UniProtKB/TrEMBL annotation, chains A, B:
Keyword Signal: no
Keyword Signal applies: no
Signal peptide: none
Pfam families: GntR, UTRA
InterPro entries: Bact_HTH_transcr_reg (IPR050679), Chorismate_lyase_/UTRA_dom_sf (IPR028978), Tscrpt_reg_HTH_GntR (IPR000524), UTRA (IPR011663), WH-like_DNA-bd_sf (IPR036388), WH_DNA-bd_sf (IPR036390)
Residues annotated as transmembrane: none
Region (Disordered): 1-34
HTH gntR-type domain ranges (all copies): 38-106
CDD domains xref list: WHTH_GntR (cd07377)
Listed name of the protein: GntR family transcriptional regulator
Record keywords: DNA-binding, Transcription, Transcription regulation
Length: 288, 288
DNA sequence: TAGTGGTCTAGACCACGAT
DNA sequence: TCGTGGTCTAGACCACTAT
């Protein structure tokens, strides 16, 4: 019961996709795409992802046992488990005691960068990203900004308001607030630069974690003018706080999308639940 | 069932919250709340979560080194790393080589159940969940439903349309589609039952993984009538496909929320990126 | 009962950050 | 340089699923 592999891909067979990536072999890696960075388990994970995407196990099919994978790749079971853990977090496979892992879907997963940076997201779609800075302000942070950026009351921030375009079409208005030490870098960025995030990263600012809140809001005068809709129209809103690897907040942004241009997708499971549904108290205002 | 953890945390101080949970000590566990299920690393994780929520390390503060935690709890470093991995996935702490972990936030994390079940979510908020079944249909699945539920073309499904209320206020319209084997269970549920999900779980249906897509849509006639808004008004939409531990789809649901009643939050990081932003092609209709 | 993934241990070495 | 987390190994035992 070794080689089962249900959807055999090509005559070469699925087993070919499984390479031994031992240290002696050097930077070898499997597949026709980019070499994968350093660690063993990442290489294994990349190879498995590729095999799954190629349909080697079918949708709903079962993966080989951990022990078998360990032998195939010539690594320990622990390393295989690390690789499979990554696939599970991406929602590609299930896992439960007693049974082999099952392929859940073949959806390619976006990188973290594609989430934090509009530009790299657009590029990954083959769209031409664009942006126009509408306003830059330096001013004292309001209380919410202080909390989000973990600043002392009265500290100053830099606010940047931009329209973002996809192949020329305005789809989003972005209001980003930066702490001063980042804001000063941002202020030096040319007005016609496409990606602020990428330029910041070139200057050593690392985005490592982000919290996103997604809901709906009404367009204000700026939004309406920049997106070509009416004030009061509903927009899909994403508010995002990003931090660097040390946990220091580097950006607090509110992005408002024209309806129909974007959707957010999340995978979660019993083991990993990073998504939450948040209640918002009814306005419960006066008598209206 | 229970759940969580938050609540008061005595004045006993942080060091006390770290308990040795060695095997000899039996089912002991730390904290003033519910005992945590079986495994060691879950107990350790629960204890650390509690300590963080109590502010034992402050927001932005640093956790003890892995080696020290291992000694305190009397477990191996691997087990500590498993526990810390869970906290990292929840967005509670960062981690990077060379430095101790940093506390990112103290936001309590929702369980998976609170995401898949409106009822258990509402209860966790202290709100009174309610629902009224508006329509139940058994009919052939359309192509999209076949794909989502992984059914053969022409297979039948059960559709349930319900209004969901929070303390009496209608906030959401839910359209759930079930494969027949589940739908038959659903059809036997009394019309006034509050939670379909919980009843299904009592009958052995396990929800283990879910994919969520969040965007914006316009209210149709049903929505408008049930939510008390106008047709065409914007609603926050969540579409969700849930699967059981074997990877078999058990539910495909579309939930439409009145604006201002709910927001979705997600945490992701360089290591774990379960959130994605999805493009929707412009209608690119006729000549407009 | 046999096979599978889940948990846990004990140790090793390395890459990185702070000092 | 030293402490820290990241990776990897080799083995053990257990809980669960399928047969």
């Amino acid at each position: 019961m070794t080689s089962d592999v249900r959807g055999r891909v090509g005559s070469s067979g699925a087993s070919v996709r499984h390479r031994v990536v031992s240290a002696e072999e050097g930077p070898l890696q499997g597949g026709s795409t980019e070499p994968v960075k350093g660690t063993l388990y990442r290489k294994v994970a990349a190879d498995l992802r590729e095999a799954i995407a190629a349909g080697a196990y079918g949708s709903g099919g079962r993966l080989p046992a951990e022990a078998e994978l360990a032998e195939r790749y010539g690594v320990s079971r622990g390393t295989i488990r690390q690789a499979l853990g990554a696939l599970r977090a991406d929602g590609l496979v299930t896992s439960r005691r007693g049974t082999r892992r099952v392929v859940l879907g073949t959806t390619p997963v976006q990188s973290f960068a594609e989430l934090v940076s509009f530009t790299s997201w657009a590029r990954s779609l083959g769209e031409e990203p664009g942006g126009r800075v509408e306003r830059v302000e330096r001013r004292p942070a309001d209380p919410r900004e202080c909390e989000k950026l973990r600043l002392d009351p009265g500290a100053e921030v830099v606010l940047v308001l931009r329209v973002r375009t996809l192949s020329g079409r305005a789809v989003m208005v972005e209001r980003s607030v930066y702490p001063l030490w980042i804001g000063e870098l941002v202020a030096r960025i040319p007005a016609d630069a496409v990606s602020h995030t990428e330029l910041l990263q070139e200057q050593g600012v690392v985005f490592a974690d982000a919290d996103h809140t997604i809901d709906l809001t009404a367009a204000d005068a700026d939004d309406a003018r920049l997106l070509g809709c009416e004030p009061g129209d509903a927009l899909l809103r994403e508010r995002r706080r990003s931090t660097d690897p040390g946990g220091t907040p580097v950006e607090w942004s509110e992005d408002r999308y024209l309806p129909g241009t974007v959707a957010f997708t999340v995978h979660n499971s019993l083991a990993t639940s990073a998504l939450a549904r948040r209640h918002r108290r009814p306005p419960r205002a006066e008598g209206a």
